[in-house]
Specification:
It is a single-pass membrane protein. With 492 residues, the protein is an alpha+beta fold. It contains 16 helices and 14 strands.
């Protein structure tokens, strides 16, 4: 959804990389970032390793009653999640929480496709694939027919555990007296995501009796599920949703990571100012075009789009020797003596060129139908952020920095985040066009970092094990107002 506008002509919007739900398969690189906070082989202090994720083979059988259950696998999984989450919070409920821990009163299962589903929290859940906490009777309900099965299919069973942990986070807010009728809904939602991160950290440390999760692909899938159920893109008349929604994909991932890394006290400290400061001046809603229609944020990926993107990057970074944009004539067209091909976009230090296979980029840019809830967020900036990252390898090369290491991969992610901030405001170009990000673009880049990870790779396409760490590096650049110097200092 990068937007290009010619001063006295039509507007077009750049479309998209189709991010797959499967975790990235880029090779991993060696090396160590300067700061231990951004260690490429650790996730919040834990080793970043692959392994099993889901229910433990020796997990105790779930206990408790689920109203309206079909006694199927989904309800069994959700009940086990409730058991485990309650066990965790009963042991870790402490100040700054008020009062004492109390289990929720009722668990309810329903099928969003069943017209005869019982009323829950005063309303019919028919046609509402959802999961929610109801304060009036302190109950938690989930859709066993649509939402949870999709989560298991595309993101694995731990996505359901994470979802239930989020809803239990709302129960914690009420029992701990953290919220009232004046609390902005976005704060409630961000805190609930944060509390889910605290609990999942407990699982990742190997302390759960029922579940296990690896800190590489397994944790990436949980983050991907948060992105998949972010708020829809907002229009100019939807400003209230900035405070009344669940948040953007980056909002949700950031809140979860806050709980995972910093713990309970950091979750309680989340307020509206915190959310707004994290968002900064990044675009939050789509605008109306000249024809009065809401911009879609989608347009073809083509040579003109990429040429204007490079013109904008030249304007922002003004390198002494700007890299040349070259269009590949075949998938194997990358004749470079000192770097491997990293399709769909490759940087060659020897020739200072960025070679782009437009057809491959276009294939990655075919958006999926998010109405099915069966795809991860997809869009132009998931694709174009990859191209931007290759340009930024040229910027690093000009500074004499090494281009092959884990630090390089994370530095590139960080600088790509910084570029997003620069592109969030219109850039006037010599050609008379303007280039800038629109709502949803940052989320699209984040989705790519979790899946293919290509915007967080070194010159040979090597990345680090955890999508969690790639997003941390990206976000550190996104909020950096020192023109990238923080990225160079952290990942020297």
């Amino acid at each position: 959804m990068l937007k290009l506008r010619r001063s006295a002509a039509r507007t077009i919007v750049l479309a998209a990389l189709a991010a797959t739900v499967a975790a990235g398969c880029a090779i991993q690189t060696e090396g160590t970032a300067v700061s231990p906070l951004y260690d490429p082989y650790r996730v919040g202090g834990l080793p970043a390793v692959d392994g099993p994720s889901g229910i433990r083979p020796d997990a105790p059988r779930p206990v408790g009653k689920v109203f309206n259950t079909d006694k199927g696998d989904i309800d069994t999984l959700a009940l086990s999640a409730v058991n485990d989450i309650e066990e965790f919070w009963s042991q870790h409920y402490r100040e700054p929480f008020a009062g004492t821990f109390r289990r929720v009163n009722r668990l309810i299962s329903y099928d969003a496709e069943d017209r005869d589903s019982p009323r829950i929290c005063g309303a019919s859940p028919y046609g509402q694939p959802n999961a929610f906490f109801c304060p009036r009777d302190r109950s938690i309900a989930w859709d066993r027919g649509v939402l949870l099965p999709i989560g298991v299919k595309y993101f694995g069973p731990m996505s359901v555990v994470g979802l239930v942990a989020h809803e239990y986070g709302h129960a914690l807010q009420y029992m701990a007296e953290l919220v009232d009728q004046d609390t902005a809904p976005i704060v409630r939602e961000q805190q609930a995501d944060c509390f889910a991160g605290v609990y999942i950290r407990h699982v990742a440390e190997g302390n759960s009796r029922r579940f296990q999760i690896d800190t590489a692909d397994g944790l990436s899938h949980v983050l991907a599920s948060l992105i998949a159920i972010r708020d829809p893109l907002l229009g100019p008349d939807d400003e209230k949703m900035l405070e009344f929604g669940h948040g953007t994909a980056v909002d949700r991932v950031t809140a979860f990571q806050t709980g995972f890394v910093r713990g309970l006290d950091a979750c309680v400290a989340i307020d509206l100012r915190d959310v707004e400061e994290r968002r900064g001046e990044l675009p939050m809603s789509l605008q109306e075009g000249r024809d009065g229609a809401l911009e879609t944020g989608e347009a073809p990926v083509n040579e003109r789009t990429l040429a204007v993107l490079f013109e904008g990057l030249d304007q922002i970074y003004a390198p002494t020797a700007a890299p040349e944009l070259v269009f590949a004539s075949s998938p194997d067209d990358h004749d470079c003596p000192d770097a491997r091909a990293t399709a769909p976009a490759s940087y060659c230090p020897a020739t200072n060129t960025v070679t782009v296979d437009v057809e491959a980029l276009r294939a990655l840019g075919q958006p999926g139908d998010e109405r099915t809830n069966a795809v991860l967020l997809q869009g132009d900036n998931t694709a174009l952020s990859i191209v931007v990252s290759r340009y930024l390898l040229a910027v690093q090369h000009e500074r004499g920095l090494p281009l092959r290491s884990a630090a390089t991969a994370l530095r590139t992610a960080c600088l790509t985040g910084m570029a997003q901030r620069h592109l969030s405001e219109p850039v006037e170009l010599p050609s008379g066009e303007q280039l800038w990000l629109t709502a949803g673009d940052i989320d699209e880049a984040a989705a790519g970092l979790l899946t293919n990870g290509q915007a967080a790779t070194d010159v040979d396409g090597a990345t680090v094990p955890a999508g969690f760490t790639r997003i941390v590096a990206f976000r550190s650049g996104l909020v950096d107002h020192a023109d990238g110097e923080t990225c160079y200092a952290r990942f020297g």
